[in-house]
Amino acid sequence: MRMGEGVEWGLHCCVTLGWLSDEAPVSIRRLAGWFDLPQEYLKKRLQALAKAGILTSSPGARGGWSLAGPPERITVMDVVTALEGATDAFRCAEIRQRGEGGRGAGQEFAHPCGISVVMRGAELAWRRELASHTIADLMARSPSGAARARRNYLSMPG
Amino acid sequence: MRMGEGVEWGLHCCVTLGWLSDEAPVSIRRLAGWFDLPQEYLKKRLQALAKAGILTSSPGARGGWSLAGPPERITVMDVVTALEGATDAFRCAEIRQRGEGGRGAGQEFAHPCGISVVMRGAELAWRRELASHTIADLMARSPSGAARARRNYLSMPG
DNA sequence: GCGCGTATACTCGGATAGTATTTGTCCGAGTACAGGGGG
DNA sequence: CCCCCTGTACTCGGACAAATACTATCCGAGTATACGCGC
Fold it and tell me: Cβ of A29: how many Cβ atoms within 10 Å?
């Protein structure tokens, strides 16, 4: 069970854009250059964030990406679900109903099976934890030099 | 981010074996038949559970699988980590240190980045939740008929 | 009855193939800005 | 001076290719039980 790399990319980009929210939008080229990421694929991930309403993109020259809202209102979970999808990691295939186990099925399967209940509960705890942190939190927690360095590089002309 | 199907299989098998712990070990053929699962692949997953010390297997005729310990002492998390590996779903690739961002690196990266801290915390909450439920819990929560039906089928000769 | 050989029913582990998902790249099209030339 | 036209720097979206998981199957080998056969 693995989470895509795009999540790390997306979160770092959100933090970065949070620091530069008072400036012009930042192009993919700049963001990819800062983190040394494949530009085209990063674009795809950011597009997913835009579709979820987390980022906005402006086309044309001097266009680029910026946060769609204040960093305090974007949670880590928002980013994760935008990039990884809203479906749970554990998907109950109801194997208890298949094969011989499902033959003489009575009321037996009216209730969801305990396994999926436990799994759902665990993912809920996970989501809750992710939802309790915002981009603003991440910005505040980062070393002070990081924001400055990024301003210099990413708002530099060229 | 998706969890392998083997987790559902493994948990159902553990519950089933818990119900049959007083009987002879159960063969793969029986288990696969009960849930209608691919026999050879199920075997692989159960072997992973055996390697983790959750199941024991006995070779030879009338051999098969059984729980290695009392169901109260096997947590759902034990099963999940045995099947999915112990590594976190989120793996921090430290992209903050790459590209232009890593050029003038000072003490900046001495502390782990806030993103991985948040992610780790969330997975911890997830694991904690999984660890709080045991196979015995799942057995108790299942409809009473299920245990009976399984005894009939799986301990039946042939 | 006892011992031996054989058939049977399992597991073990490696090798391999198929499929789905993730990651990465490419290209044509649209959009905004900037600058230059003609009116 | 103003308008249009073109070049440039972006994004959008689809199509495609590569890499990596995940799922599934196959096979030779080992091991314990069951059974029958000869002694």
Answer: 12
